[in-house]
Amino acid sequence: MSETPEHHDSLDDLLAGGGHADGEHDVDVFELADVPAQEVILRSVMVLMSAAAEKLGLSSEDPAASPHLDLDEARRLIDALSGLVAGSVEYLGPQANNIRNGLQGLQYAFREASAVPDEPGKGPGERFTGKLF
Q1: How do residues 8-34 score in pLDDT, each as one tens digit?
Q2: What are the Cα distances from residue 19, in Å, to 7, 25, 39?
């Protein structure tokens, strides 16, 4: 087994990018090696979806006025999410349709937020998911 520069004690720790401020860990910490691949994939999907929604301003009453609106960042997140979903669809289980629908919703929201929409097939993630229109 090769050594990695940084060790994470849990999936939540890995996704959060670090440990607790006091250096202590919760009692129910688990080893990443013990987490099923499907759960790692699903949590990664949820992190990417949530981040993309924030960057699209979808948590605000008026997304266009959101202080978090950043279409460049949203595009990157949607691209990454699309690649992950396309590459792992067979492992998503019964959640696959909901995840694909959520991804498509983010892609539509991106298109609506764009002042100059991308050509069909050129929007974020469409190289992995196909044209939306």
Answers
A1: 455 555 455 544 555 554 545 567 888
A2: 10, 7, 20
The token pair that represents 106 in the structure block: 């983010």
115: part of which helix (H) or strand (E)? none
End-to-end, the C-alpha distance of the chain in Å comes to 47
Q: What are the angstrom distances between the C-alpha of 38 and each of 5, 95, 120?
A: 25, 11, 31
Burial 68-106 (b: 16+ CB within 10 A, else e): bbebeebbbbbbbbbebbeebeeebeeeeeebbebbeeb
CA distance linking residue 47 with residue 42, whole number of Å? 9
> Angle at Cα 66 formed by Cα 113 and Cα 15, nearest 5°?
95
